[in-house]
From TrEMBL:
Residues 223-232 have a biased composition (Polar residues). It comes from Rousettus aegyptiacus. It comes from the Eukaryota. The lineage of its organism: Eukaryota, Metazoa, Chordata, Craniata, Vertebrata. Residues 1-58 form the Rab-GAP TBC domain. Residues 144-192 form a coiled coil. Keywords: Coiled coil. The keyword Coiled coil applies. Pfam families: RabGap-TBC_2. This is TBC1 domain family member 1. Residues 208-232 are annotated as: Disordered.
Length: 232
């Protein structure tokens, strides 16, 4: 999530500032995207395209898609002025992609190269984590309170994500069933096409045979005999 936040900071500073102003971090809206590869909220056709790219390019695709989606919807997100409406828009309205928006997002993902930035952000994150560990320690009570709050928040997020994962698994199974049906239909179409081609070849051969000129049967020649001489 830190890497997505940094990408927004570098690519869409105004959107990043707007979300920060309302204390909206990527974990509030993007966790299901990363956990289910967008399958929990987005149309199956779009999810299938994302899965294809995921198998080609790896997990970097998830960051690309998230950045493209947020960037393309930036004007609409900036119109909302409180946490509830912003999160609701990103979670519920943004995933309803039309075909044009879907193709635009896919094309942007193919054109985008953020591999170096992601590597730099990962190093940056680990450095920050080490600095936090080395900072002045909290008292035992403060540490316990903080851990309890963190654990409580994580448990709630885990329950939410588990529910979303179940929904995503259901949609993935539905997608797999659809793909299986399409493959079966494709096989049947190939067989039907082959049968039609054979039938067409047979018909062409028949037409060709009908067009060939047939030799007319010759009439039998009359047998000529010499007349017998008559006696006087």
């Amino acid at each position: 999530m830190y890497q997505l936040s940094r990408l927004l900071h570098d690519y869409h500073r105004d959107l990043y500032n707007h979300l920060e102003e309302h204390e909206i971090g990527p974990s509030l809206y993007a966790a299901p995207w990363f956990l289910t590869v967008f399958a929990s909220q987005f149309p199956l056709g779009f999810v299938a395209r994302v899965f294809d790219m995921f198998f080609l390019q790896g997990s970097e695709v998830i960051f690309k898609v998230a950045l493209s989606l947020l960037g393309s919807h930036k004007p609409l997100i900036l119109q909302h002025e409180n946490l509830e409406t912003i999160v609701d828009f990103i979670k519920n309205t943004l995933p309803n992609l039309g075909l044009v928006q879907m193709e635009k997002t896919i094309n942007q993902v193919f054109e985008m190269d953020i591999s170096k930035q992601l590597q730099a952000y990962e190093v940056e994150y680990h450095v920050l984590q080490e600095e936090l560990i080395d900072s002045s320690p909290l008292s035992d009570n403060q540490r316990m309170d903080k851990l309890e709050k963190t654990n409580s928040s994580l448990r709630k997020q885990n329950l939410d994500l588990l529910e979303q994962l179940q929904v995503a698994n259901s949609r993935i199974q539905s997608l797999e069933a659809t793909v299986e049906k399409l493959l079966s239909s494709e096989s049947k179409l190939k067989q039907a096409t082959l049968a039609l081609e054979l039938e067409r070849a047979a018909l062409l051969q028949t037409v060709e045979e009908l067009r060939r000129p047939t030799a007319e049967p010759t009439a039998p020649q009359p047998h000529l005999t010499q007349p017998e001489p008559t006696g006087d």
